[in-house]
Amino acid sequence: MSDLVLSVLLSLVSAVAYAGGAIVQERVAATSPKATYAPLRRPAWWGAGCLNGLGALLHVAALAYGPLSVVQPLGALTIVLALPMSALLVGRRSGATAWRGAIMATVGLGGLLALTGATTEQSLSGSQRLVVGLVTAGGVLVLMSSARAAHRHPVVRAVLLAIAAGGAFGMASVFTKSVTEGWTGQPLEELATLLAIAGLAATGMLLSQASYRGAGLAAPLATATVVNPVVAATIGITMFGESFRYGTIGTILALSCGVVAAGGLILLTTERIGRGRRVGASVVAQGVSPAIPPVVPDSPAGLDCVPLPPRAPESRDSRHEPPTGGWTAEDVRS
Predict the structure, then answer these.
(1) pLDDT tens readout for residues 26-75
(2) Would you tell me the crossing angle of helices 78-90 and 3-31 to the nearest 10 degrees?
């Protein structure tokens, strides 16, 4: 087996592991509404963390055997693989709109990653790491505050949290590259960077868990999957001296791929919002009943009594009304 084939297989298995972890996270979020960020008492959540960790290790192993231009686009298949896996494992089927959005996001992301140039051996200095870390922390806090303000719109809230999660994961990748490419030998500086990597990875995990609550699987997963490499590529181009392939034409193609990926995300978001509105309208329509009887507030023994409907008018013979002269003995005996 050649190194390229092995790299492709590792990339595919990595995408499956990432998709499985996302499915488990979404199911945990759906069944644990009170534990928004870290349902620590749910073994399934720990299993999702293990699947994500396995996906990361397999992705790194794939990079060791194959070129970045092949491995990175294959990692974008996580979005497409998650939809059939979700239908097969948990019985949640996605509509045609969700499929179109997922395919658009995957194609756009794959093209963007394929056009990204080869990585260089440059690294961030200590001051650059500090600035980038502070900017990342500030951006994550702003997105979390915005998501909290959008609590009445679950899909918008989920997308904001997914953007924050993707940004945290992307910056963790940037710091990892910075450590591997430029080990300074200064214990305090490298220890601080390693702690930042661990903190960013944990933050991304917690934010991604929160993003699945009330928003389904496709939209948060696609958002985080696209934002992650886009953030890493942006830092690579601006600080590591990387560039897109094929010069100006490659840059134009990369921007076009970014537009396609963004269109896929918008399609997934609007599809989820439309589905939520349809479900809400159906629930309201089914929950309203005009035949609900009123409740008497002051009922004996604390029970809710319902007034009886008015009786139909009866004829004079069936009322047994006494004659004008009063009751007689014969009337009583009868």
Answers:
(1) 888 888 877 778 788 889 989 999 999 898 888 888 877 876 567 777 77
(2) 50
